[in-house]
Protein backbone atom coordinates (compact mmCIF):
# COMPACT_ATOMS: atom_id res chain seq x y z
CA UNK A 1 0.00 0.00 0.00
CA UNK A 2 1.65 3.12 -1.22
CA UNK A 3 -0.44 5.47 0.90
CA UNK A 4 0.37 3.79 4.19
CA UNK A 5 3.67 5.62 4.47
CA UNK A 6 2.25 9.04 3.54
CA UNK A 7 2.02 10.29 7.11
CA UNK A 8 5.33 8.85 8.28
CA UNK A 9 8.25 11.22 8.78
CA UNK A 10 10.56 11.51 5.80
CA UNK A 11 13.99 9.97 6.31
CA UNK A 12 15.71 13.35 6.35
CA UNK A 13 13.74 14.42 9.42
CA UNK A 14 13.65 11.01 11.08
CA UNK A 15 13.63 11.29 14.84
CA UNK A 16 12.23 14.81 14.65
CA UNK A 17 8.68 15.95 14.04
CA UNK A 18 8.65 19.31 12.26
CA UNK A 19 5.41 21.33 12.49
CA UNK A 20 5.54 22.85 9.02
CA UNK A 21 7.13 21.14 6.03
CA UNK A 22 7.40 22.50 2.49
CA UNK A 23 8.75 20.03 -0.05
CA UNK A 24 9.54 20.84 -3.67
CA UNK A 25 7.16 23.81 -3.75
CA UNK A 26 6.84 25.64 -7.08
CA UNK A 27 4.62 28.60 -7.86
CA UNK A 28 4.09 30.61 -11.00
CA UNK A 29 2.29 33.86 -11.74
CA UNK A 30 1.65 33.23 -15.42
CA UNK A 31 5.12 32.55 -16.79
CA UNK A 32 6.86 34.21 -13.82
CA UNK A 33 8.42 31.55 -11.61
CA UNK A 34 8.03 33.01 -8.09
CA UNK A 35 8.92 29.97 -5.97
CA UNK A 36 11.54 27.48 -7.24
CA UNK A 37 11.76 24.02 -5.64
CA UNK A 38 11.45 25.36 -2.13
CA UNK A 39 12.20 22.89 0.67
CA UNK A 40 11.83 24.14 4.21
CA UNK A 41 10.94 22.51 7.49
CA UNK A 42 10.16 24.28 10.72
CA UNK A 43 10.32 22.67 14.14
CA UNK A 44 7.84 23.27 16.93
CA UNK A 45 8.72 26.41 18.85
CA UNK A 46 11.16 27.56 16.20
CA UNK A 47 11.33 31.19 15.07
CA UNK A 48 12.38 31.48 11.42
CA UNK A 49 13.00 34.83 9.79
CA UNK A 50 12.70 35.06 6.00
CA UNK A 51 14.74 37.84 4.45
CA UNK A 52 15.67 38.83 0.95
CA UNK A 53 15.27 41.60 -1.60
CA UNK A 54 11.75 42.62 -2.67
CA UNK A 55 10.41 40.26 -5.29
CA UNK A 56 12.45 37.38 -3.86
CA UNK A 57 9.29 35.39 -3.08
CA UNK A 58 9.51 35.58 0.71
CA UNK A 59 6.00 37.04 1.20
CA UNK A 60 4.56 34.61 -1.34
CA UNK A 61 6.21 31.72 0.51
CA UNK A 62 4.70 32.94 3.77
CA UNK A 63 1.23 33.19 2.18
CA UNK A 64 1.37 29.71 0.63
CA UNK A 65 1.63 28.19 4.11
CA UNK A 66 -2.03 28.91 4.83
CA UNK A 67 -2.93 28.75 1.17
CA UNK A 68 -3.78 32.39 0.63
CA UNK A 69 -1.64 31.63 -2.43
CA UNK A 70 -2.06 28.35 -4.28
CA UNK A 71 0.95 26.37 -5.46
CA UNK A 72 1.46 24.55 -8.76
CA UNK A 73 3.58 21.68 -7.47
CA UNK A 74 5.09 20.35 -4.29
CA UNK A 75 3.65 19.60 -0.89
CA UNK A 76 2.95 21.64 2.22
CA UNK A 77 2.05 19.91 5.48
CA UNK A 78 1.10 21.40 8.81
CA UNK A 79 1.38 19.02 11.75
CA UNK A 80 1.66 16.15 9.23
CA UNK A 81 -1.60 17.10 7.49
CA UNK A 82 -1.43 18.12 3.84
CA UNK A 83 -3.12 21.41 2.95
CA UNK A 84 -6.49 20.63 1.36
CA UNK A 85 -7.51 22.30 -1.90
CA UNK A 86 -10.56 24.27 -0.78
CA UNK A 87 -13.65 24.10 1.36
CA UNK A 88 -14.38 23.51 5.03
CA UNK A 89 -11.29 21.38 5.64
CA UNK A 90 -9.02 24.14 4.37
CA UNK A 91 -10.83 26.72 6.52
CA UNK A 92 -10.27 24.50 9.57
CA UNK A 93 -6.58 24.11 8.85
CA UNK A 94 -6.20 27.84 8.20
CA UNK A 95 -7.65 28.62 11.59
CA UNK A 96 -4.74 26.72 13.14
CA UNK A 97 -2.17 29.01 11.55
CA UNK A 98 -2.35 32.66 12.59
CA UNK A 99 -1.54 35.32 10.02
CA UNK A 100 -0.46 38.91 10.55
CA UNK A 101 -0.47 41.19 7.51
CA UNK A 102 1.60 44.20 6.51
CA UNK A 103 -1.54 46.35 6.26
CA UNK A 104 -3.06 44.98 9.51
CA UNK A 105 -6.41 44.17 7.81
CA UNK A 106 -8.47 44.59 10.96
CA UNK A 107 -12.17 44.39 10.07
CA UNK A 108 -12.89 48.09 9.56
CA UNK A 109 -16.52 48.04 10.71
CA UNK A 110 -15.86 46.23 13.99
CA UNK A 111 -14.39 47.27 17.33
CA UNK A 112 -11.14 45.64 18.39
CA UNK A 113 -13.10 43.37 20.73
CA UNK A 114 -15.42 42.29 17.88
CA UNK A 115 -12.37 41.73 15.65
CA UNK A 116 -10.82 39.39 18.19
CA UNK A 117 -14.02 37.50 19.08
CA UNK A 118 -15.35 36.90 15.54
CA UNK A 119 -13.19 33.84 14.82
CA UNK A 120 -13.59 32.16 18.22
CA UNK A 121 -17.40 32.62 18.07
CA UNK A 122 -18.03 31.75 14.40
CA UNK A 123 -15.28 29.18 13.77
CA UNK A 124 -14.66 27.64 17.19
CA UNK A 125 -18.24 27.97 18.44
CA UNK A 126 -17.33 29.69 21.71
CA UNK A 127 -20.07 31.47 23.66
CA UNK A 128 -19.87 35.25 23.35
CA UNK A 129 -19.12 35.82 27.05
CA UNK A 130 -16.25 33.32 27.03
CA UNK A 131 -14.86 34.68 23.77
CA UNK A 132 -14.97 38.25 25.11
CA UNK A 133 -13.22 37.31 28.33
CA UNK A 134 -10.45 35.61 26.37
CA UNK A 135 -10.27 38.49 23.88
CA UNK A 136 -9.91 41.09 26.66
CA UNK A 137 -7.05 39.11 28.18
CA UNK A 138 -5.31 38.98 24.78
CA UNK A 139 -5.88 42.68 24.09
CA UNK A 140 -4.42 43.46 27.53
CA UNK A 141 -1.46 41.20 26.78
CA UNK A 142 -0.59 43.15 23.62
CA UNK A 143 -1.22 46.44 25.41
CA UNK A 144 -4.40 47.70 23.73
CA UNK A 145 -6.98 46.61 26.31
CA UNK A 146 -7.98 50.24 26.85
CA UNK A 147 -9.03 50.53 23.20
CA UNK A 148 -11.18 47.39 23.07
CA UNK A 149 -14.33 49.29 22.15
CA UNK A 150 -12.74 51.53 19.50
CA UNK A 151 -12.81 51.04 15.75
CA UNK A 152 -9.49 50.36 13.97
CA UNK A 153 -9.60 53.80 12.32
CA UNK A 154 -9.56 55.45 15.77
CA UNK A 155 -6.18 54.07 16.89
CA UNK A 156 -2.57 54.20 15.65
CA UNK A 157 -1.00 51.75 13.22
CA UNK A 158 1.13 50.17 15.93
CA UNK A 159 -1.95 49.64 18.09
CA UNK A 160 -3.84 48.19 15.10
CA UNK A 161 -1.05 45.73 14.38
CA UNK A 162 -0.91 44.62 18.01
CA UNK A 163 -4.67 44.09 17.96
CA UNK A 164 -4.26 42.09 14.73
CA UNK A 165 -1.76 39.86 16.55
CA UNK A 166 -4.32 39.39 19.35
CA UNK A 167 -6.96 38.47 16.74
CA UNK A 168 -4.69 35.76 15.33
CA UNK A 169 -3.76 34.47 18.80
CA UNK A 170 -7.44 34.20 19.77
CA UNK A 171 -7.69 31.16 17.48
CA UNK A 172 -4.97 29.44 19.57
CA UNK A 173 -2.92 28.70 16.46
CA UNK A 174 -0.15 26.13 16.28
CA UNK A 175 2.02 28.60 14.38
CA UNK A 176 2.02 32.28 13.46
CA UNK A 177 2.93 33.80 10.10
CA UNK A 178 4.04 37.44 9.98
CA UNK A 179 4.13 39.04 6.52
CA UNK A 180 6.22 42.21 6.92
CA UNK A 181 4.34 43.18 10.09
CA UNK A 182 6.21 46.45 10.64
CA UNK A 183 6.72 47.66 7.08
CA UNK A 184 3.67 49.94 7.08
CA UNK A 185 4.43 51.48 10.46
CA UNK A 186 5.93 54.81 11.50
CA UNK A 187 9.46 54.25 12.89
CA UNK A 188 8.50 54.95 16.52
CA UNK A 189 5.75 52.32 16.39
CA UNK A 190 7.91 49.50 15.05
CA UNK A 191 9.37 48.57 18.42
CA UNK A 192 6.05 48.25 20.21
CA UNK A 193 5.06 45.60 17.65
CA UNK A 194 8.47 43.88 17.71
CA UNK A 195 8.31 43.72 21.52
CA UNK A 196 4.98 41.86 21.32
CA UNK A 197 6.54 39.48 18.77
CA UNK A 198 9.60 38.89 20.99
CA UNK A 199 7.32 38.06 23.89
CA UNK A 200 5.47 35.62 21.69
CA UNK A 201 8.74 34.00 20.55
CA UNK A 202 9.86 33.68 24.19
CA UNK A 203 6.58 31.95 25.03
CA UNK A 204 7.52 29.16 22.60
CA UNK A 205 5.26 30.03 19.65
CA UNK A 206 6.34 28.65 16.27
CA UNK A 207 6.81 31.69 14.06
CA UNK A 208 7.68 32.47 10.46
CA UNK A 209 8.50 36.13 10.06
CA UNK A 210 9.08 38.00 6.80
CA UNK A 211 10.81 41.20 7.80
CA UNK A 212 13.45 43.80 7.03
CA UNK A 213 14.14 44.32 10.75
CA UNK A 214 17.63 42.83 11.04
CA UNK A 215 17.79 43.62 14.75
CA UNK A 216 14.78 41.40 15.33
CA UNK A 217 16.29 38.66 13.15
CA UNK A 218 19.55 38.75 15.17
CA UNK A 219 17.95 38.76 18.59
CA UNK A 220 14.77 36.69 18.25
CA UNK A 221 15.28 34.23 15.39
CA UNK A 222 16.58 30.69 15.68
CA UNK A 223 17.22 30.56 11.95
CA UNK A 224 17.51 33.03 9.14
CA UNK A 225 16.42 31.95 5.68
CA UNK A 226 17.70 34.10 2.82
CA UNK A 227 15.77 34.06 -0.47
CA UNK A 228 16.39 35.52 -3.88
CA UNK A 229 14.48 35.05 -7.14
CA UNK A 230 12.21 32.43 -5.64
CA UNK A 231 14.92 30.16 -4.24
CA UNK A 232 16.26 29.62 -0.74
CA UNK A 233 19.96 30.47 -0.99
CA UNK A 234 20.97 30.28 2.63
CA UNK A 235 19.53 28.78 5.82
CA UNK A 236 21.60 29.40 8.95
CA UNK A 237 21.49 30.54 12.57
CA UNK A 238 21.42 34.37 12.74
CA UNK A 239 24.95 34.73 14.15
CA UNK A 240 26.45 32.62 11.38
CA UNK A 241 24.38 34.30 8.69
CA UNK A 242 25.12 37.88 9.69
CA UNK A 243 28.81 37.34 10.55
CA UNK A 244 29.69 35.04 7.72
CA UNK A 245 27.15 34.77 4.89
CA UNK A 246 28.25 32.04 2.52
CA UNK A 247 26.69 33.08 -0.78
CA UNK A 248 27.66 36.14 -2.75
CA UNK A 249 24.05 37.33 -3.13
CA UNK A 250 23.53 37.37 0.65
CA UNK A 251 26.81 39.23 1.23
CA UNK A 252 25.74 41.80 -1.34
CA UNK A 253 22.26 42.13 0.23
CA UNK A 254 23.65 42.53 3.75
CA UNK A 255 26.27 45.07 2.69
CA UNK A 256 23.50 47.22 1.23
CA UNK A 257 21.23 47.23 4.27
CA UNK A 258 23.79 47.26 7.09
CA UNK A 259 25.40 50.47 5.86
CA UNK A 260 22.14 52.35 6.54
CA UNK B 1 -58.04 72.04 -8.44
CA UNK B 2 -61.34 70.74 -7.14
CA UNK B 3 -60.88 67.76 -9.46
CA UNK B 4 -57.91 66.82 -7.27
CA UNK B 5 -59.26 67.77 -3.86
CA UNK B 6 -62.65 66.07 -4.38
CA UNK B 7 -60.92 62.84 -5.38
CA UNK B 8 -58.20 62.65 -2.75
CA UNK B 9 -59.34 59.22 -1.55
CA UNK B 10 -58.75 57.81 -5.05
CA UNK B 11 -55.22 59.20 -5.01
CA UNK B 12 -54.59 57.82 -1.53
CA UNK B 13 -55.79 54.35 -2.53
CA UNK B 14 -53.55 54.46 -5.60
CA UNK B 15 -50.63 55.65 -3.49
CA UNK B 16 -51.18 52.79 -1.05
CA UNK B 17 -51.00 50.21 -3.86
CA UNK B 18 -47.89 51.84 -5.29
CA UNK B 19 -46.32 51.80 -1.85
CA UNK B 20 -47.21 48.15 -1.37
CA UNK B 21 -45.76 47.23 -4.79
CA UNK B 22 -42.59 49.13 -3.90
CA UNK B 23 -42.18 47.56 -0.48
CA UNK B 24 -42.70 43.99 -1.62
CA UNK B 25 -40.77 44.19 -4.90
CA UNK B 26 -38.07 46.34 -3.27
CA UNK B 27 -37.48 43.87 -0.42
CA UNK B 28 -37.54 40.83 -2.69
CA UNK B 29 -35.21 42.32 -5.28
CA UNK B 30 -32.75 43.76 -2.72
CA UNK B 31 -32.48 40.35 -1.06
CA UNK B 32 -32.32 38.44 -4.35
CA UNK B 33 -29.89 40.99 -5.79
CA UNK B 34 -27.56 40.54 -2.81
CA UNK B 35 -27.68 36.75 -3.22
CA UNK B 36 -27.05 37.14 -6.95
CA UNK B 37 -24.05 39.40 -6.21
CA UNK B 38 -22.74 36.67 -3.87
CA UNK B 39 -23.16 34.16 -6.71
CA UNK B 40 -21.26 36.45 -9.07
CA UNK B 41 -18.20 36.53 -6.78
CA UNK B 42 -18.43 32.92 -5.56
CA UNK B 43 -15.64 30.40 -6.17
CA UNK B 44 -18.08 28.24 -8.21
CA UNK B 45 -17.70 29.02 -11.94
CA UNK B 46 -21.25 27.84 -12.78
CA UNK B 47 -22.78 30.25 -10.24
CA UNK B 48 -20.65 33.11 -11.52
CA UNK B 49 -21.67 32.44 -15.14
CA UNK B 50 -25.36 32.02 -14.24
CA UNK B 51 -25.34 35.26 -12.25
CA UNK B 52 -23.70 37.17 -15.09
CA UNK B 53 -26.16 35.77 -17.63
CA UNK B 54 -29.16 36.76 -15.48
CA UNK B 55 -27.89 40.30 -15.02
CA UNK B 56 -27.12 40.80 -18.71
CA UNK B 57 -30.47 39.46 -19.89
CA UNK B 58 -32.69 41.31 -17.41
CA UNK B 59 -30.76 44.57 -17.40
CA UNK B 60 -30.94 44.83 -21.17
CA UNK B 61 -34.64 44.05 -21.51
CA UNK B 62 -37.24 46.86 -21.45
CA UNK B 63 -39.23 46.54 -18.24
CA UNK B 64 -42.52 46.58 -20.15
CA UNK B 65 -41.49 43.37 -21.87
CA UNK B 66 -40.69 41.80 -18.50
CA UNK B 67 -44.23 42.79 -17.43
CA UNK B 68 -45.68 41.22 -20.60
CA UNK B 69 -43.82 38.00 -19.82
CA UNK B 70 -45.08 37.94 -16.25
CA UNK B 71 -48.66 38.86 -17.10
CA UNK B 72 -49.18 36.84 -20.29
CA UNK B 73 -46.56 34.08 -20.50
CA UNK B 74 -46.81 32.81 -16.93
CA UNK B 75 -50.59 32.23 -17.24
CA UNK B 76 -49.93 30.22 -20.42
CA UNK B 77 -47.65 28.01 -18.33
CA UNK B 78 -50.61 27.36 -16.08
CA UNK B 79 -49.64 29.84 -13.37
CA UNK B 80 -52.68 31.95 -12.59
CA UNK B 81 -52.17 34.75 -10.11
CA UNK B 82 -53.57 38.24 -9.63
CA UNK B 83 -52.21 41.05 -11.81
CA UNK B 84 -50.83 42.61 -8.65
CA UNK B 85 -48.74 39.48 -8.02
CA UNK B 86 -47.59 39.43 -11.65
CA UNK B 87 -46.52 43.06 -11.24
CA UNK B 88 -44.55 42.17 -8.09
CA UNK B 89 -42.87 39.31 -9.97
CA UNK B 90 -41.98 41.49 -12.95
CA UNK B 91 -40.58 44.33 -10.84
CA UNK B 92 -38.64 41.90 -8.63
CA UNK B 93 -37.12 40.00 -11.56
CA UNK B 94 -36.08 43.22 -13.26
CA UNK B 95 -34.70 45.12 -10.27
CA UNK B 96 -32.83 42.11 -8.87
CA UNK B 97 -30.33 42.65 -11.71
CA UNK B 98 -29.84 46.32 -10.78
CA UNK B 99 -29.58 45.74 -7.02
CA UNK B 100 -27.09 42.95 -7.77
CA UNK B 101 -24.80 45.26 -9.70
CA UNK B 102 -25.00 48.02 -7.06
CA UNK B 103 -24.13 45.53 -4.29
CA UNK B 104 -21.33 44.04 -6.40
CA UNK B 105 -19.81 47.50 -6.87
CA UNK B 106 -19.77 47.79 -3.07
CA UNK B 107 -18.14 44.39 -2.67
CA UNK B 108 -15.42 45.37 -5.14
CA UNK B 109 -14.78 48.53 -3.13
CA UNK B 110 -13.90 46.55 0.03
CA UNK B 111 -10.14 46.04 0.31
CA UNK B 112 -9.09 42.46 -0.61
CA UNK B 113 -7.13 42.36 2.65
CA UNK B 114 -10.42 42.21 4.57
CA UNK B 115 -11.39 38.94 2.90
CA UNK B 116 -7.86 37.55 3.32
CA UNK B 117 -7.90 38.31 7.02
CA UNK B 118 -11.31 36.64 7.34
CA UNK B 119 -10.13 33.54 5.50
CA UNK B 120 -6.94 33.47 7.59
CA UNK B 121 -8.93 33.09 10.83
CA UNK B 122 -10.80 30.17 9.26
CA UNK B 123 -14.06 31.76 8.10
CA UNK B 124 -15.63 30.10 5.06
CA UNK B 125 -16.92 31.92 1.95
CA UNK B 126 -20.42 32.53 3.32
CA UNK B 127 -19.21 33.64 6.75
CA UNK B 128 -16.63 35.96 5.20
CA UNK B 129 -19.35 37.48 3.03
CA UNK B 130 -21.95 37.89 5.81
CA UNK B 131 -19.76 39.08 8.66
CA UNK B 132 -16.96 40.98 6.95
CA UNK B 133 -17.60 41.90 3.30
CA UNK B 134 -21.31 42.73 2.98
CA UNK B 135 -21.58 44.93 6.11
CA UNK B 136 -18.83 47.12 4.65
CA UNK B 137 -19.96 46.83 1.03
CA UNK B 138 -23.57 47.87 1.69
CA UNK B 139 -22.51 50.99 3.59
CA UNK B 140 -20.48 52.24 0.67
CA UNK B 141 -23.31 51.80 -1.84
CA UNK B 142 -26.23 53.43 -0.04
CA UNK B 143 -26.60 56.19 -2.70
CA UNK B 144 -26.68 53.79 -5.70
CA UNK B 145 -29.04 51.44 -3.83
CA UNK B 146 -31.44 54.32 -3.22
CA UNK B 147 -31.14 55.28 -6.90
CA UNK B 148 -32.31 51.79 -7.82
CA UNK B 149 -35.15 52.03 -5.26
CA UNK B 150 -36.32 55.34 -6.74
CA UNK B 151 -36.23 53.87 -10.24
CA UNK B 152 -38.29 50.97 -8.91
CA UNK B 153 -40.87 53.33 -7.37
CA UNK B 154 -41.31 55.04 -10.72
CA UNK B 155 -41.44 51.75 -12.61
CA UNK B 156 -44.48 50.69 -10.57
CA UNK B 157 -46.38 53.01 -12.94
CA UNK B 158 -45.94 50.40 -15.68
CA UNK B 159 -48.28 48.18 -13.66
CA UNK B 160 -51.12 50.60 -14.54
CA UNK B 161 -51.08 49.19 -18.05
CA UNK B 162 -51.71 45.73 -16.59
CA UNK B 163 -54.78 46.53 -14.57
CA UNK B 164 -53.21 47.14 -11.19
CA UNK B 165 -55.07 49.99 -9.49
CA UNK B 166 -51.93 51.81 -8.40
CA UNK B 167 -51.34 55.54 -8.42
CA UNK B 168 -51.02 56.16 -12.15
CA UNK B 169 -53.92 53.97 -13.22
CA UNK B 170 -56.21 55.67 -10.70
CA UNK B 171 -54.99 59.03 -11.99
CA UNK B 172 -55.70 57.98 -15.60
CA UNK B 173 -59.23 57.02 -14.66
CA UNK B 174 -59.59 60.34 -12.93
CA UNK B 175 -58.20 62.24 -15.91
CA UNK B 176 -60.81 60.59 -18.13
CA UNK B 177 -63.61 61.53 -15.74
CA UNK B 178 -62.38 65.07 -15.20
CA UNK B 179 -61.19 65.70 -18.75
CA UNK B 180 -61.22 69.50 -18.34
CA UNK B 181 -58.70 69.28 -15.46
CA UNK B 182 -56.15 66.84 -16.89
CA UNK B 183 -53.24 69.15 -16.08
CA UNK B 184 -54.26 69.37 -12.41
CA UNK B 185 -54.88 65.64 -12.18
CA UNK B 186 -51.49 64.69 -13.65
CA UNK B 187 -49.64 67.44 -11.74
CA UNK B 188 -51.08 66.09 -8.50
CA UNK B 189 -50.04 62.57 -9.54
CA UNK B 190 -46.45 63.74 -9.86
CA UNK B 191 -46.66 65.28 -6.39
CA UNK B 192 -47.87 61.98 -4.97
CA UNK B 193 -44.88 60.17 -6.53
CA UNK B 194 -42.66 62.77 -4.89
CA UNK B 195 -44.24 61.77 -1.57
CA UNK B 196 -42.47 58.43 -2.04
CA UNK B 197 -39.28 59.35 -3.85
CA UNK B 198 -38.24 62.39 -1.80
CA UNK B 199 -38.33 60.50 1.52
CA UNK B 200 -36.30 57.74 -0.18
CA UNK B 201 -33.64 60.33 -1.01
CA UNK B 202 -33.72 61.67 2.56
CA UNK B 203 -33.39 58.12 3.86
CA UNK B 204 -30.25 57.79 1.72
CA UNK B 205 -28.66 60.89 3.26
CA UNK B 206 -29.61 59.73 6.77
CA UNK B 207 -28.21 56.22 6.28
CA UNK B 208 -25.05 57.56 4.70
CA UNK B 209 -24.34 59.82 7.67
CA UNK B 210 -25.28 57.13 10.17
CA UNK B 211 -23.25 54.28 8.67
CA UNK B 212 -19.96 56.03 7.93
CA UNK B 213 -17.21 54.35 9.93
CA UNK B 214 -14.09 55.36 8.11
CA UNK B 215 -12.15 58.31 9.42
UniProtKB/TrEMBL annotation, chain A:
It is a peripheral membrane protein. PROSITE patterns: ABC_TRANSPORTER_1, ABC_TRANSPORTER_2. Its main location: membrane. InterPro entries: AAA+_ATPase, ABC_ATPase_HisP-typ, ABC_transporter-like_ATP-bd, ABC_transporter-like_CS, MetN_ABC_transporter-like, P-loop_NTPase. It is found in: Cell inner membrane. The keyword 4Fe-4S does not apply. This is Amino acid ABC transporter ATP-binding protein. Belongs to the ABC transporter superfamily. It comes from the Bacteria. SUPFAM superfamilies: P-loop containing nucleoside triphosphate hydrolases. Pfam families: ABC_tran (PF00005). Residues 20-254 form the ABC transporter domain. One of its GO terms (molecular function) is ATP hydrolysis activity. One of its GO terms (cellular component) is plasma membrane. Keywords: Amino-acid transport, ATP-binding, Cell inner membrane, Cell membrane, Membrane, Nucleotide-binding, Transport.
UniProtKB/TrEMBL annotation, chain B:
Gene3D superfamilies: MetI-like. GO terms for molecular function: transmembrane transporter activity. GO terms for cellular component: ATP-binding cassette (ABC) transporter complex. It is a multi-pass membrane protein. The chain crosses the membrane at residues 15-39, 51-74, 80-100, 144-169, 181-207. Its main location: membrane. Residues 15-204 form the ABC transmembrane type-1 domain. It holds the Pfam family BPD_transp_1. Belongs to the binding-protein-dependent transport system permease family. HisMQ subfamily. This is Amino acid ABC transporter permease.
